[in-house]
Amino acid sequence: MTNGNDGLRFALAQIDTCVGDLDGNGEKVLEFTRRAVSDDATVIVFPEMTLTGYPIEDLAFRATFRNAAWDKANSLALRLKAEGLGQAFVIVGTVGTDDERRLPRNRMVVLHDGVVWAGYDKHFLPNYGVFDEFRIFTSGERSLVLDIDGFRIGVAICEDIWQDGGPVAELGRQDIDVLLTINGSPYEAGKGHVRHELGARRASELHAPLIYLNQVGGQDDLVFDGGSFVIGQDGKMLERSPQFVEDLSFWNLRHDADSQGMSTVVPELGTDEEMYRACVLGLGDYMRKNHFEGVCVGLSGGIDSALVATMAADACGGEHVWGISMPSRYSSQGSRDDARLLADNLGANYRTETIERVFDTFQEQLHLESVAEENIQARIRGVIVMSYSNSKGLLALAPGNKSELACGYSTIYGDAVGGYAPIKDLLKTKVWDLARWRNGYAEAHDEPVPIPVSSIEKAPSAELRPGQRDSDSLPEYALLDQVLEAYIELAHGRADLLADGFDERTVDTVMRLVDRAEWKRRQYPLGPKVTSLAFGRDRRLPVTNAFRE
Amino acid sequence: MTNGNDGLRFALAQIDTCVGDLDGNGEKVLEFTRRAVSDDATVIVFPEMTLTGYPIEDLAFRATFRNAAWDKANSLALRLKAEGLGQAFVIVGTVGTDDERRLPRNRMVVLHDGVVWAGYDKHFLPNYGVFDEFRIFTSGERSLVLDIDGFRIGVAICEDIWQDGGPVAELGRQDIDVLLTINGSPYEAGKGHVRHELGARRASELHAPLIYLNQVGGQDDLVFDGGSFVIGQDGKMLERSPQFVEDLSFWNLRHDADSQGMSTVVPELGTDEEMYRACVLGLGDYMRKNHFEGVCVGLSGGIDSALVATMAADACGGEHVWGISMPSRYSSQGSRDDARLLADNLGANYRTETIERVFDTFQEQLHLESVAEENIQARIRGVIVMSYSNSKGLLALAPGNKSELACGYSTIYGDAVGGYAPIKDLLKTKVWDLARWRNGYAEAHDEPVPIPVSSIEKAPSAELRPGQRDSDSLPEYALLDQVLEAYIELAHGRADLLADGFDERTVDTVMRLVDRAEWKRRQYPLGPKVTSLAFGRDRRLPVTNAFRE
Q1: DSSP B446
Q2: ∠ CA A280-A285-A291, rounded to 5°
Q3: CATH superfamily, domain at B275-470
Q4: Pick the CATH number of B8-255 from 1.20.1250.20, 3.30.930.10, 3.30.470.20, 3.60.110.10
């Protein structure tokens, strides 16, 4: 290990872990540590809850799991030493147990010289948005400063730097040389800048550079984007790792604050590219971690299924994508042509399963009309998609976007069928943006353009009755998406929305649609809880709710 | 109002509120207060979060909603006075706003003489099981003692008495005459005794009787059972209200601790009756509060759908129940006869929709085999059930029980279809218990026995292939349910289960089934979160989870 003039060499091991996979995550720590040490690093930093994966939710309450994680940390320390890596300081996250109350902790441990050499427990436990940590963990009470090769390294875990006070404030009185943080910070559009600003502020307060090591990878509906960085106390970016891929970067800490090491600073991505890559990584990791090798998706010729199939081809290769065209009497020839063209562009498997005969057979028996007649077409398609899923072991993809899901403009057990919905969090206008971005990317790289232009340009239609248009039932998407953003994301009430300048009719339409769609978004049935633990009670808004603004 | 010799007269208004229905809940407060005052009560006690309903989840974050609730409390106080009820002390729960931080509070207010006369904010915010209050509310800091007609009344809200310390401990130093608590305590089998013991302990500690006023009614998947009570400092039950119905009872507080008033003490229900009534109330309230007048359910002739249809008939009347028999080539004649007999017994609407022609049409096109062939039968039935739901505006009921849902022994988008699952939280052995109890109840009351005996006694089968039995795929239910109880409810790990005396093969089978069923229980598709607020991310266990004990 070479320090001396170069100061202390850190390796930023931005890895993709899997929840519950103690063995696999441990192997990955070993592999990255080998590479880091061979590049002369002394301190190797891994993300929050490295060994367990993150977030572990109620797994934390299983004593068996906590014991297995503890065993893994110890055996890993021994194995590192046995491989001649004992002199490195390997910083990993894991689950711990509160000594007094036997409750779970969100813990950082330092593996060194064959033992768990030091430990630190997360103090601030986020309890908002996607986070439920206060429910699961108890808080650590102590700050920690590591003394390595004459450098004083303060440590913190994720939320500890987002809140004022606590252990980071305490570190401000400890004259540290660097603040090392390990994180599991999920991707959100624009969050990179927020992290950078926060990092710069803490570095300035503590008069020390800050290392921000973030997890990368998809875990259920969260995507961690990586983008780890080191920022100086003057706000200068000293290192930035790429987003959406595993990475091993290096940075040297020096005693002289004015001449800190500079390392590779990867340029930032544009918003559309960032979102697109987030969706692809989320889908790809969900497949890999749940052992799916391929996907099936209904191809309508419309923009939503076209974008979903393209993302899938980018995630697992076109040859693992099964596109199923399921035309009816209401499907235009243009739609069928677009579906086939898309599949050809992607190199995907393509099948046509007309729904006409089954639809006629159902109707001879049931004689359905209006919405019931529309829904049964979508449900026949749902049955066909699931039959491909069952027969071939494919992950069924639901092509719904956030605008239609928010408004309940989809058929439960119909087009909403699937195990994963790659664009469920993209408003419709953003779906168009990403489709255009993806085609533009292909053009710029001299690759075949995947998405047929007519899928992007034609007026959206569910094609469940003659001449149907989305705009028969919904405001135009350009307007709808603005109202949804204000009503859902900003929690504006009716009076706020009118003050925002939206007209009364649109506001009332959108509010009514969104309020009534709550039960549709919950596609598992509700039911009473009569014993101590029921399955799947988990939502944020009551389904039964009579409040009208 | 007559106090004097009778002391202070309390009315226990155990009402059924609806989340978000500020007007409806306010009207109910008015109506019960009129009745209480006409029976000479001075203090009228309503449940936790009376005006808003409970639990309100993220509605708490909408300032519009909090403002409307505040207006409702004030206008209600004025209206009470205008009606000549201003001298009563009306104690209701509502949502408040923390003055400093503008965050939501779980608040009790006293309406008196036309104004909001006093207020108290809940201190301990439960953050486990079905409760997420710490996420939503901030804690109150002060205890409150009301002085009414010379009596000192300490107050608390629900969790405040479940935790040691806090405002209730403070009340112990205040020489109070009674502890008045308002609650939203969901039903769990056996919880009544736990509440009584807790009440007796607090009454003893505070040297004062305790009033426990609980909400009644269903709210999504929670059922509140009422069962309000007053318990003396010597542990003697002084009043107990019935469970599962709205109720107005009275109790007089006297200065002489040794001669506290006695009132009606309703006898406790047996466990099976309690569970049955919980399920019926949950379903009935879900229908009423979401404006469904009838239900549809597939009738297989088996015990699960038979119990569900019987509960539905008890909840809304047999004439509002649509039972659909959907036989295939694999359905036995006995099953068809049992389905028809059940519908006749219940006075339900009965339809037969054979699935044969649609199944054949699908198969001519798709040529499915094995599990895919089994699943498509269940999914055709799901489409038919939903077509009745759509055509007639009926709530579709999913008949799954907890044993099969836990093991994934059901078809997603097939028999799992529905908006409400009345027995989703009952293990299979408990399904049989409740069916026998319901038939026995009918016999004891000289009513027609609803459930055919052969539905109870025959071996369970999904009838999706010739001669199929549940026991081909699952351990016998008597054994399976014991393992499920230990693995899920008690969180026993593999070693614990073996130590419990279960054999290794059974343990490994059940653990594998339960671990793999997680994604099935989440019937909405997952998808990546790319903006600040995604829909429906809310679960307790990760779907992606590689941990194996």
Answers
A1: T
A2: 130
A3: HUPs (3.40.50.620)
A4: 3.60.110.10
Closest approach of B354 to chain A, Cα-based (Å): 9
Contact B528 A422 (CB under 8 A): yes
The answer to whether the CB atoms of B391 and A376 lie below 8 A apart is: no
C-alpha A525/C-alpha B382 separation (Å) is: 13
Taking a C-beta distance cutoff of 8 angstroms, is the pair B21, A547 a contact?
A: yes
- Confirm or deny that B192 is annotated as ligand binding: no
* A contact residues 462-491, partner B, Cβ 8 Å cutoff: 488-489, 491
Is B236 a catalytic site residue? no
Residues of B in contact with A539 (CB under 8 A): 57, 536, 538
Choose among A9, A159, A312, A449: nearest CA to B527. A312
**Token code pair at residue B336:** 């068809």
- Cα-Cα-Cα-Cα dihedral of B470, B476, B479, B482, to 10°? 20
Q: What is the DSSP string of A131-160?
A: --HHHH-PPP----EEEETTEEEEEEETHH
**Lowest mean pLDDT across A35-44, A65-74, A157-166, A482-491:** A482-491
In CATH terms, the fold of domain B475-549 is Arc Repressor Mutant, subunit A (1.10.10)
Note the pLDDT tens digit of each residue in A11-52: 999 999 999 999 999 999 999 999 999 999 999 999 999 999
Closest-CA residue of chain B to A363? B358
Residue of B nearest to A68 (CA): B549
Residue with tokens 């069962």: B227
Q: What pLDDT is stored for residue A5 in this prediction?
A: 55
CATH number of A4-256: 3.60.110.10
**pLDDT value, residue A127:** 86
| pLDDT at position B538 | 30
* pLDDT number for residue A535: 34
Q: Which residues are CB-neighbours of B94 under 8 A, at least 6 positions away?
A: B49, B50, B51, B52, B69, B70, B72, B73, B107, B108, B109
* CA pair distance A292, A165, nearest whole angstrom: 45
A538 reaches B (C-beta below 8 A): yes
Alpha carbons within 13 angstroms on the beta-carbon side of residue B104 total 24
Confidence (pLDDT) at B2: 45
User: Quick check: B149 and B41 in contact, CB under 8 A?
Assistant: no
**Is the CATH number 3.40.50.150 carried by domain A275-469?**
no
Which structure tokens are listed for A227? 């983008």
Q: Is there a contact between A135 and B130 if contact means CB atoms under 8 Å apart?
A: no
- In whole angstroms, give the CA distance from residue B328 to residue B320: 26
ipTM: 0.92
Q: Catalytic residue numbers of A?
A: 48, 122, 158
Given CB atoms, is B527 within the 8 Å cutoff of chain A?
A: yes
Report DSSP letters for B485-517, one per residue.
IIIIIS---HHHHHHTT--HHHHHHHHHHHHHT
A residues 51-90 closer than 8 Å to B (CB): 53, 55-59, 61-65, 68
B305 assigned ligand-binding residue = yes
Crossing angle of helices B303-316/B333-346, nearest 10°?
10
Q: Which residue of B has its CA nearest to A69?
A: B547
B152-185 tens-digit pLDDT: 999 999 999 999 999 999 999 999 999 999 999 9
Distance of alpha carbon B461 from alpha carbon B304, whole angstroms: 11
By percentage, how much of chain B surpasses pLDDT 70? 93
DSSP state, residue B258: G
Domain boundaries, chain B: 8-255, 275-470, 475-549
Q: What digits encode the pLDDT tens for the residues B21-41?
A: 999 999 999 999 999 999 999
| Mutation site for B-interface testing, chosen from A21, A531, A548, A549 by largest number of B Cβ within 10 Å | A531
